[in-house]
Amino acid sequence: MIPENGTCGEGMAIDPETFDSLLRAIERFVAERLVPLEDDVDRTDRVPDALVEEMKALGLFGLTIPEEFGGLGLGIEQEVRVAIALGQTSPAFRSIFGTNIGIGSQGIVFDGTDAQKRRYLPGLASGEIIGSFCLTEPDVGSDAASLKTRATRAGDGYVLNGTKRYITNAPRANVFTVMARTDPDEPGARGVSAFLVDADTPGIRLGKPERKMGQKGAHVCDVVFEDARVPADALIGGIEGQGFKTAMKVLDRGRLHMGGVCTGVAQRLIRESVAYAMGRRQFGRAISEFQLVQAMLADSETECAAAAALVLATARRRDRGERVTKEAAMCKYFASEMVGRVADRAVQIHGGAGYISDYAVERFYRDVRLFRIYEGTSEIQKLIIAREMLREAG
Ligand code: COS
């Protein structure tokens, strides 16, 4: 039986001392290894292979995968605190393992059969397997339940046909979680099932990597299924018609995680803004002494602290097993909009320099724009929040 509430099957938190030393190690890795390479990665659109190996060695690919399957089994608050730490550098670095710890593995963690867990989770946790999540299509974005990709029963398996669009990490993926329609007579969510499809399955073709506004080094492309045949045991949980719910549960957790990442990026942007404002002199003094600059700093600091509080409080509730669909949407909505405003102020405080690529804020300004769009737009988050409010009200 697939649980309604996406908390089932998640790792329990690891002990606080082990977690603290892991967090310190990640913070050091971010400051010493990732931050110095940000500019290179933005210019070359490539994260060096050696760095990916270091990420594997640190356990970053398995942060959220239960310990029994080789992951670190972080609790949700712990995951969010790591997300905040990872937010201190270019989001493209997190993207390298982001699908393995989020949308590319959690469908299996929540709803997979034991055999599916044993087959995929250890490799996803070590980084040997890269997971990717195929929901969006050329004509299907926010209205995810109307997806058109078909999975037709054929013999003892299914045949997949359709195109998935803007699929993060698809160019490197070994296994796709694919949402496809198994019931052609059911046009909505109930006709959708989720499949685990190996990337080397005949009939899968990848589009060319898209050129993006920001987050250079993180790659997305189309995944095209043309009579791609999968066995019956590729169906997640072995139950048809549950794929949309699996996707929604995965996104609930992902949205909370993204709230953490946005908060971390905002903290970094605020540090950049304070340092620049204190060093930059105009009218005979540091611009940090001007009250209009101070007002921008104060707004950013306050909003960032509010996001951190919301994200951590929501994570703790989820660790207690509560349903946090509304709160996770609030986290994603508030934190992604917040970091957009913080990035805008950071550029403003930097003045002309903020428009020049030598300064980190120019890059982050482009990078953060995606946060308001992927894993559900701000508009969709508002819709989810309001729906949940009305549902709670009976
Ligand atoms: N957890 C568990 N189940 C959920 C759920 C959640 N968070 N959200 C919805 N469901 C279930 C519902 O309970 C419903 O089940 P029943 O049929 O048994 O009643 C089913 O899923 C359909 O839900 P709903 O009727 O709410 O679907 P809608 O089509 O009206 O809308 C939204 C759902 C708009 C919220 C959804 O399509 C969505 O999140 N869209 C954005 C997609 C997205 O984030 N894309 C980003 C790219 S993927 S990285």
Mean pLDDT over all positions: 96
Largest sheet: 4 strands, antiparallel
Look at the helices and sheets and give the structural class.
Answer: alpha+beta
Bound molecules: coenzyme a persulfide
Strand arrangement within the widest β-sheet reads 2-3-7-6
Helices and strands, in N-to-C order?
HHHHHHHEEEEEEEHEEHHHH
Separation of termini? 27 Å
Instruction: Based on Cα principal axes, name the global outline.
Output: globular
Helix content: 40-55%
Computed Rg: 21 Å
Number of helices: 12
Number of strands: 9
Strand content: 5-15%
The residue ranges in which pLDDT falls below 50 over 5 or more consecutive positions are 1-9
Characterise the protein shown here.
- This protein has 394 residues and is an alpha+beta fold.
- It is 49% helix and 14% strand.
- It is built from twelve helices and nine strands.
- The strands form three sheets. A four-stranded antiparallel beta sheet has the order 2-3-7-6, with no helix packed on it.
- Helix 4 runs antiparallel to helix 9 and helix 8 (243-279) packs parallel to helix 10.
- The structure holds coenzyme a persulfide.
Can you lay out the helices and strands and say which pair or pack?
Blueprint: H1 16-34, H2 38-44, H3 49-58, H4 76-86, H5 91-101, H6 106-111, H7 114-126, E1 131-134, E2 150-154, E3 157-168, E4 175-181, E5 192-198, E6 204-206, E7 220-231, H8 243-279, E8 281-282, E9 285-286, H9 291-319, H10 325-350, H11 360-367, H12 378-392
Parallel strand pairs: 1-4
Antiparallel strand pairs: 2-3, 3-7, 4-5, 6-7, 8-9
Helix pairs in contact: 1-4, 4-8, 4-9, 8-9, 8-10, 9-10, 10-11, 10-12
Bound molecules: coenzyme a persulfide.
The site of coenzyme a persulfide (COS) has 22 residues, from helix 8 and helix 12.
